[in-house]
Write a structure and sequence with these properties.
Elements: E1 8-11, H1 15-25, E2 31-33, H2 51-56, E3 62-65, E4 82-85, H3 91-94, E5 107-109, H4 115-131, H5 134-143, H6 150-153, E6 162-166, H7 170-181, E7 185-190, E8 205-208, H8 212-218, E9 221-224, E10 250-253, H9 262-270, E11 276-279, E12 299-301, H10 311-327
Parallel strand pairs: 1-2, 1-3, 3-4, 4-5, 6-7, 6-9, 7-8, 9-10, 10-11, 11-12
Helix pairs in contact: 1-10, 4-7
Length: about 350
């Protein structure tokens, strides 16, 4: 029975722990670990496959891979039927599709159902830190200062806050659930009108992107979880954040960096439209040391870690899909190669 199971190839910086986790879940699964040439960067930097890598993958039917390692291989693996991404986003792969060639015939699935809670924790923790002035209190502690004045004393409880979530897919719905659990008023911004059965019970108000200015005017926090697609690139550029000036909103971006330019964020802060920006994603990653954002006190920077791929979780999600694949059932979290999500 075990010998008849489809072989799984791994091309990811998670290969060693992922292989171990898969063997625990399914001892009969044959797993081939293909070691790349530069797997010491936690998946953020691309790595050109060696000729040995390409040769080792020629027979691959099922491939678990970091999407940014896939561009050189997308049209070079003739036996490939299914690629499972280790990331939730696959734009680093799809933006390199050769438009002069037919779309790959294999199925691409994303790492789904896991990042939402982790990203929601990131949002909640940053909101609490911001409202309770955690950085100021840390500075006071370091300097031996007992200060209960101003915003440290007169903080806003979460129940007084409103948050606007740009993109209410799986991840956005988890963020909405966490925010609503803490008593916030939740606004959700979506591309098109949703039927009632597709709406989250944790979103108080739904609006379309054409109504975004209303949401920006009414929310204390704006949380962007939009993916990188042809529709979303540069979507928030220009003066659209001027609508935040009444609330002096805090802008959080944990989606993709190309949705809004660095220039737009800097201008929104300097113009007084937003009071702070909490950024986990950027147009260019790693964020260059020359970026103006590093030196702005109104900016909090984290290195794309609002959610990370944990090998055991990737293995569990993949194994669930693997069982579906073996049974001929539809896979979960399929990506449409044409629209990118």
């Amino acid at each position: 029975m075990a010998s008849r199971l489809p072989v799984v190839h791994l091309y990811t910086y998670l290969a060693a722990p992922l292989q171990e986790s898969l063997h625990k879940l399914c001892p009969g699964m044959a797993v081939v670990k293909v070691v790349g040439s530069n797997f010491d960067t936690y998946g953020l930097l691309p790595s050109a496959p060696t000729p040995e890598d390409v040769a080792a993958l020629q027979e691959a039917e099922i491939l678990v891979a970091d999407p940014n390692l896939m561009p050189p291989l997308m049209h070079k693996l003739p036996q490939l039927k299914w690629v499972q991404s280790t990331w939730a986003g696959v734009d680093s792969m799809l933006k390199h599709l050769d438009k002069t060639k037919p779309l790959p015939s294999y199925t691409l699935t994303r790492f789904g159902g896991v990042f939402g809670p982790a990203m929601a924790e990131y949002v909640i923790s940053n909101i609490v830190n911001r409202e309770r002035r955690a950085q100021k209190q840390w500075e006071n502690q370091r300097n031996g200062v007992w200060d209960r004045a101003g915003d440290i004393h007169n903080y806003r409880p979460l129940t007084m806050l409103s948050v606007g979530i740009l993109g209410v897919g799986d991840i956005g719905k988890d963020i909405a659930r966490y925010c609503k659990t803490f008593g916030m008023t939740v606004w959700g911004v979506v591309r098109r009108e949703l039927s009632q059965d597709k709406r989250s019970p944790y979103v108080d108000h739904y609006r379309k992107f054409s109504e975004l200015p209303e949401v920006l005017q009414k929310c204390d926090y704006i949380c962007c979880v939009l993916p990188s697609t042809a529709e979303t690139k540069g979507l928030l550029n220009g003066n659209i954040l001027e609508s935040c000036k009444e609330k002096k909103s805090v802008f959080i971006n944990i989606g993709r960096g190309d949705v809004i330019s660095e220039e737009t964020i800097v201008n929104a802060i300097q113009s007084g439209w937003i009071s702070h920006a909490i950024l986990d994603v950027f147009e260019t990653e790693p964020l260059p040391a020359t970026s103006q954002l590093w030196k702005m006190p109104q900016v909090t920077i984290t290195p794309h870690v609002s959610a990370v791929s944990i090998p055991s979780q990737v293995a569990e999600m993949f194994y669930d899909n693997y069982q579906r694949y073996v049974k001929g059932e539809e896979l979960k979290y399929i990506i449409n190669l044409e629209n990118g999500y």
